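Final report, closing paragraph on structural work. Over the funding period we assembled a curated collection of sequence-structure pairs, and we close with a single example.
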Amino acid sequence: MGNTSKILWNRVNILIYHTDGTFAEYSHIKQNGSVVKKGEAVKIGQLIGYSGNVGWSSGPICI
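Its predicted structure, as stored:
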C-alpha cells in the first residue's frame, strides 16, 4: 500500500481503493458519519468515519 488511497462512498459504506490495486470496504457507517468525501485521498491512520448501528445491534458496529 502506498501512503494515499482514493475514496468512494455512499451514506453508510466507505470503499477505499489502495494504490496497489486492492480495496477495503467499511460498512454500517453512522448516517452522515463519513468524514471523507468521494475522490478524496486519505492516509494511513486517518479518521474516515464513525461506526453506526444496524438491525438489532445494541451499539455501534463496523464490518
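Residues 4-51 form one domain. The two ends are 21 Å apart (CA to CA). We thank the funder for supporting this effort.
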